[in-house]
Design brief:
Elements: E1 3-10, E2 18-27, E3 30-38, H1 48-54, H2 58-61, H3 67-78, E4 82-85, H4 88-102, E5 109-113, H5 114-121, H6 130-137, H7 146-163, H8 169-175, E6 181-184, E7 187-189, H9 200-205, H10 211-214, H11 217-223, E8 227-231, H12 239-248, E9 252-254, E10 263-266, H13 273-280, E11 283-286, H14 287-293
Parallel strand pairs: 1-4, 4-5, 8-9, 8-10, 10-11
Antiparallel strand pairs: 1-2, 2-3, 5-6, 6-7
Helix pairs in contact: 5-7, 6-7
Length: 295
């Protein structure tokens, strides 16, 4: 298999603010090289929330090239190449949003989301987020370092290829029922994994049998009647699943942040809702913090 795994870190809630890109190159089924580039975001605005995740500050990127120069050096390598990304909807949207900001053409490649792939290959796992999946597969890496995350993504694809006897991106997607995404100079089609819609009964039925018996009164008091808003790409749940789970605990899920909101739960690519949360003094939680809150 020949491919390249990519990963971006962003400076703030805008997807057009990449501050770091990591790449892990696969040739003949082996990771042959890993590279990393800092990127100076357009307005050098860094969110404290993003810094707390990846540790990149303005000082790290002050003397780095902006996105057009970085992507120009990589474009010839990416064009026509098979690209991998874990939660590819985020990483590809970073490319699209930033190219749109600078009014430059997109690179052109087919891509496969290893998050969607892993859900097909290892359906019994409780979580397919990068950190949890790598723990299950014995892949050691430093999370939220772009080059390390790209390395982890590449390893996931290689593990999946071995298990499913796949020797290229097309066979890896075809053998596992995942449709490749495609990016071209002025458009894209997403990577998808068609399946039957999951009902509320399906989702609640996947919780541990004693789930509702082990909730403590303290957890119920913290969650019941609280107004929750979700923003960004969740890794453990879809938005529908997160809504159903929250409401099963007595919370109220809203689509917008206001002064009545109790918690904003954010994932990668969280947008303007973060600003609204700051404006109204709403407590912001990561997905992990939210899961800890609900026990």
């Amino acid at each position: 298999m020949r491919a390249v795994a990519i990963d971006f870190e962003t400076a703030n809630e805008q997807r057009s603010s990449p501050c770091s890109i990591g790449l892990a190159w696969i040739d003949n089924g082996i990771i042959t090289s890993i590279e990393h580039h800092y990127i100076r975001p357009p307005d050098m605005r860094f969110s404290g929330f993003n810094i707390s995740i990846h540790g990149i500050t303005p000082d790290h990127v002050r003397n780095s090239n902006e996105f057009p120069d970085v992507i120009a050096t990589l474009k010839s390598k990416l064009n026509g190449h098979a690209v991998l990304a874990h939660n590819a909807s985020f990483d590809v949207s970073v490319i699209r949003s930033t190219c749109d900001y600078y009014e430059i053409e997109y690179p052109e490649f087919d891509y496969l989301c290893t998050l969607k792939l892993s859900q097909k290959v290892w359906p019994a796992l409780m979580s397919h987020r990068l950190k949890d999946l790598c723990y299950e597969l014995g892949i050691e890496f430093k999370h939220h370092d772009a080059s390390e995350d790209a390395y982890a993504c590449a390893n996931i694809a290689l593990n999946a290829a071995k298990i499913t006897n796949s020797n290229c991106l097309n066979s890896l997607s075809n053998n596992n029922g995942v449709i490749l995404g495609k990016l071209w100079r002025d458009g894209y089609s997403p990577c998808s994994s068609p399946s039957a819609p999951r009902t509320e009964s399906d989702i609640l039925g996947e919780l541990p049998k004693n789930y509702f018996n082990i909730k403590t009164e303290d957890i119920e008091n913290r969650i019941s009647n609280k107004v929750i808003v979700f923003s960004g790409a969740l890794e453990r749940f879809t938005r529908t699943e997160a809504k159903i789970l929250s409401e099963s605990l007595g919370a109220k899920v809203s689509g917008s942040v206001s002064k009545k909101t109790d918690y904003l739960v954010v994932g990668p690519g969280a947008g303007s809702k973060l600003k609204d949360a700051e404006k109204h003094g709403v407590q912001v939680l990561t997905e992990d913090e939210w899961l800890a809150l609900i026990g």
